[in-house]
Amino acid sequence: MQVTGHITPDSLMTLEAYSKYRKAHKAEIFAHRRLRSVMLGENINVQFESELSIRYQIQEMLRVEKIFEEEGILQEIEAYAPLVPDGSNWKATLMIEYTDVHERKRELARLIGVEDRMFVEVEGHVRVYAIADEDMDRENDEKTSAVHFLRFELTDAMRAAVKAGAGVKLGCDHTHYPAHVAIAPEALASLAGDLK
User: Fold this and answer.
1) Which of 8, 62, 179, 181 is the most buried (most CB within 10 A)?
2) Which among 158, 148, 155, 38 has a CA at the least distance from the CA of 93?
3) Alpha-carbon distance 70 to 75, whole Å?
4) Among the listed residues 33, 36, 140, 153, the one whose alpha carbon sits nearest the alpha carbon of residue 89
5) pLDDT tens across 61-112, in order?
6) CA dist 130 to 34, 101, 165, Å?
């Protein structure tokens, strides 16, 4: 899958070409996604997106929905391309994961606002809180959604520190889910590649 810096209909594969590519490269795409996935506590999974992961998502949607007309392709690009980091930030999909349906319902009610309490903290710098769900609100008065989209906007100094090897914590300071974790060096090396 060619990473071009900008996802356009012309830069995507045809359904036939993608079907062949998918068989040959599925394991490496999954490894890339796993590398950039950070568990925060037991129930929050933060998947840091990249152009590669979003290209894969778009190609998968086109394959599953059998979309080959330009209008449908443009709709998929419009839906997912905003999740590609643009050099000054990290973008991520936040997934709240509870296997038991009753526990999930209870916790989603307790975790209203959790997406706004997510942060990254570059060593030696202040916390950067997520800008969440820029496309649409994903919660109501009764519960939050199990999926949110996050953007962490980093200053020039923070980006330089990450590229120079500074450690980074991912955290949440929501009353009902206080947690933080150091992002593993291998994952951080991949994330540093997203920054200009």
Assistant:
1) 62
2) 148
3) 9
4) 153
5) 999 999 989 999 999 999 898 999 999 999 999 999 999 999 999 999 999 9
6) 21, 27, 22
